[in-house]
């Protein structure tokens, strides 16, 4: 039988060569099946259709012109390693788990003659049920988004592993794939697919040849034969196996030096004996491709930056190197080694719960992978970190569920959180890096300051905000405090939608004119932050858009005088804005703006109103929302502004007519917009502005635009009927098609 010879030679080399590792080859390495076996498979195989999403994915993969198709190997090696991790974990509590195939390894064999690449592992294998679930459906959520992004060419095939569909990348290079698998709980099965809509599963007529594990045979496409070349394969495996904790063996031809037989003829001179040259011959055999010494167990002094980066990119399945990391050994109460990484980019959907487990922390115990299924190992706000923890003293016989509650793990958790915050604090020393970090994870830190009472102080020290002093760059609160003016006892801030918006806010101008610095809180979360963190470093925050705000340099007598001077105007304005405005005050804080709308102490600022309108709040308590929305506001007028002086004159001269009232309304509404609020009556505002425009242009207030429009024609009833009949025919035709052509999708599927 074809290939049988090769199988023999495989074994021989391993047994005979002194150099050969002690290795039991998992599974059979024959090519194909005997005719009898093939017939048996044909007769017993069951056909299944791929889930729609799998077919969609497959279509994308098959038609992909993706250049780096090599990633299929990364995915297969990673799956093999996961499968071995699983059986090794089981063996901790079940001594018989490994007996069917005690040696844990991954083997890769390129068969040039038959154009087949085989990857085998002695991992956990799959039962028939798991085969169907794992290689026929897509379990993980988020895949749909990946598919849409791929279809719109917005995503990269490289990301495939992050979406739990890495296996299907085999179809980048193969047009037929056969998976043979044996799990301890079931028989050996064969899964086969030619990347169309269906796949088959059959019991293996050869029985259990694997012992335990999975063998994947890729029948390579003609344009993918390079992956059988020794050089190509070798460099790829080296690239992807560096951080795999199990031996990966590649079937290669090794060069061996053969010493010439020296026949000791006594009368020949020594030189002649030496002339006989040594020969080199090529011997096929298994070659170990990785060293499997986990990077975290090495001395940090001997690990290069590049190694740390590559390790991160490999285990986190991230294309970008991390922005920072810390590698440490904890001693004392609890002993463990860990590497904590901060990615350079926030993962997709950081604040949404896409999966049950974040899978961002991998726990090993004495180098044995235990789990990455933790429910919030670190608090959610630190959910972006990636960590590897290898503990020495954790009980291995507890279930994964109770493990998380274990005291030792709780201690580890505390240490990891502390280390994370130290790592971030360390980042602050490098301005450029820290700004980059904040643009990705600044919101996370603020959530931390809100939620993590214990660490709030620490987090507050590393928060940064743009300010009137720093412009769009940002300042820490401590730096802000160091620049506070004499007698200033509060940290001034304003909230809003963007730096540009708040920079021009009427509330900021008076402060900036006096030389005070104002913090710009332009993220929606900031409103919540100041509620939970009322101050820092002994200084309270002060919202400059709130009604009670005072500079401290106000002249009470002067302001009383102004109030009496403007009383008539205030009365007129108050009467005009009776429904919207609680009171009107003569402002001391305005310099360049005519007026400003401020929130009462308990009312919402414009920014808060917008946030609440956009959030789930509307479902929670509509009554409360209405209450806040109806809160009347305070209108401050600038006594020095020409517009206000103009209105003042109208009031004093008893000329506060309907037209003036209309202008007051428009002025108020424009001020609402400038102060960050949204209008309740957009149409009313628009028509008031139009009226002012008309008046200024001297156009008749009631003149209408003249346009000629042709009314649409009435539909012809008879024609319509005919059209419908035609459409029905079309459906009938399709029905007919379906019944004759089984490859076409049914209407339901469509
Ligand atoms: N060599 C294997 N041995 C045992 N099970 C496997 C093997 N390869 C794949 N599987 C099973 O098939 C499932 C799907 O594999 P796939 O690579 O598509 O996604 P994944 O490995 O779950 O996701 P990710 O790539 O994010 O780890 C795996 O979760 C695993 O249960």
Q: State the strand order across the main sheet.
A: 1-6-5-4-7-3-2-8-9
Distance between the termini: 46 Å
Coarse morphology: elongated
What does the largest sheet look like? 9 strands, mixed
Bound molecules: adenosine-5'-triphosphate
- Number of helical regions: 26
Mean pLDDT: 82
Number of strands: 23
Report helical residue fraction: 25-40%
Look at the helices and sheets and give the structural class.
alpha+beta
The proportion of strand residues reads: 15-25%
Low-confidence spans: 1-30, 726-750
**Rg (CA only):** 37 Å
Description:
Residues 1-30 and 726-750 have low confidence and may be disordered. Helix content is 39%, strand content 18%. It is of the alpha+beta class and 750 residues long. Strands 1-6-5-4-7-3-2-8-9 form a nine-stranded mixed β-sheet, with helices on both faces. The site of adenosine-5'-triphosphate (ATP) has 17 residues, from helix 4. Residues 726-736 have a biased composition (Acidic residues). Pfam families: HATPase_c_3, HSP90.
Would you summarize the structure shown here?
With 750 residues, the chain is an alpha+beta fold.
Question: Which SSEs are present, and which pair or pack?
Answer:
Elements: H1 4-16, H2 35-44, E1 46-49, H3 52-62, H4 71-91, E2 106-111, E3 116-121, H5 128-134, H6 143-151, E4 174-182, E5 188-193, E6 198-203, E7 213-220, H7 230-241, E8 248-258, H8 270-275, E9 279-288, H9 305-315, E10 324-330, E11 336-342, E12 361-365, E13 368-371, E14 386-391, H10 400-403, H11 407-427, H12 431-451, H13 456-462, E15 464-467, E16 471-476, H14 477-482, E17 490-495, H15 499-503, H16 506-513, E18 519-521, H17 524-532, E19 535-536, E20 539-543, H18 556-565, H19 567-576, E21 581-586, E22 595-598, H20 606-614, H21 617-620, H22 622-629, E23 633-637, H23 642-652, H24 658-674, H25 682-697, H26 717-740
Parallel strand pairs: 2-8, 12-14, 17-18, 17-20, 21-23
Antiparallel strand pairs: 1-6, 2-3, 3-7, 4-5, 4-7, 5-6, 8-9, 10-11, 11-14, 12-13, 15-16, 19-20, 22-23
The structure holds adenosine-5'-triphosphate.
